[in-house]
Specification:
By secondary structure, the protein is of the alpha+beta class. 67% of the residues lie in helices and 14% in strands.
Length: 132
């Protein structure tokens, strides 16, 4: 079905609320990404509306993904529990720390990235402080 430009822009905005992927929406309506971006440049209101639609669509997808993750938590999936806690509870967030090995003359001989929880890092720092 052929649409006029104004109708097509409206359809694109509506679709981006559901599927926030420009390439997919452009393919559905038979326009190139270059055309889409040219329209965004030429029509600031269209650009603002598509940006809002993409952000709204991402929020919708994020909510769907979170609901699926919660279903996995309900099923007792350990990986889901770890993922949720690691991203939503400061006590379980992962920190990256570098352990730097030095020789007797304080030259770096190796670097190793270590993943620890915030709680583990706080304990390590408290231990170092108490040794001073």
């Amino acid at each position: 079905m052929a649409y006029n430009k104004k109708t097509l822009k409206k359809k694109i905005i509506e679709e981006l609320h559901l599927v926030p992927i420009i390439l997919t929406v452009c393919a559905k309506y038979g326009i190139s990404r270059q055309t889409y971006y040219r329209w965004v440049e030429e029509d600031k209101i269209f650009g603002e509306n598509t940006q809002y639609a993409i952000e709204n669509g991402r929020e919708t997808i994020n909510e769907l993904a979170e609901s699926k993750l919660i279903q996995m938590i309900d099923k007792g999936e350990k990986w889901a529990v770890q993922l949720w806690l690691g991203h939503n509870n400061h006590r379980y967030k992962k920190l990256f720390r570098e352990n730097i090995a030095l020789d007797n003359e304080s030259r770096v001989t190796g670097v190793k990235a270590v993943v620890v929880t915030a709680r583990e890092e706080i304990q390590r720092l408290e231990e170092l402080e108490s040794k001073r």
